Amino acid sequence: MEPLYLQTNRLVQETQQCFEKLEKGGDANSDAIEREIQARIDSITSNCERLEILIYKEPLNRRTNGKLRIDQLKYDRMHLQAALDTYRNRRYQRLQEEREREALLNLQFRPSSSHETSILMDHGQKHHTSLQNANRGVDDLLQSGAGILESLQGQRVTIKSAHRRLYDIANTLGLSNTTMRFIERRAYQDKFILFGGMVFTLIVIGLIVIYFT
User: Quick one: 100 and 136 in the same domain?
Assistant: First the structure.
């Protein structure tokens, strides 16, 4: 087990040195260095798997220390693989930006491009006009909703006033307690109907605003 551990540890150090060459070498030999690094990482992975099997053949007093060393190798392998993936992603993004910049520099405008541009502008103007119309429609709906709410508030005041008048009349006429409770229960139900109508109106206005925006 010990020789395999030393060999794997040496592979980790050599792979780290390969990263230094990769950073200094530029794009000239980057493909070859990347393949070399990936091959070394694969070898480290294979060695770690073998070490995890061999550790159980060691004496009990050496297993704990051996397991810690194997875990360190596995951590180093993960770190190296992550560093390689990060380098590849950076390189791909750099190449993609270079291709896009090259394509932009080589773009040639044809005489018909002005016509295409005018079509795009007309389409944008129509879209802008449609948005303005939609905004005006939403404003009208909000104003209508505000008018409905004011009307409901006025009805609430009217109902309250009518309830007070009925109560006064009932006291004047000396109506029975059963009749009074019936009137109060009816007024209580009317209050729920009023609030329910207000909530329903607000929900409808909210849905219309969300739909149009």
Answer: no
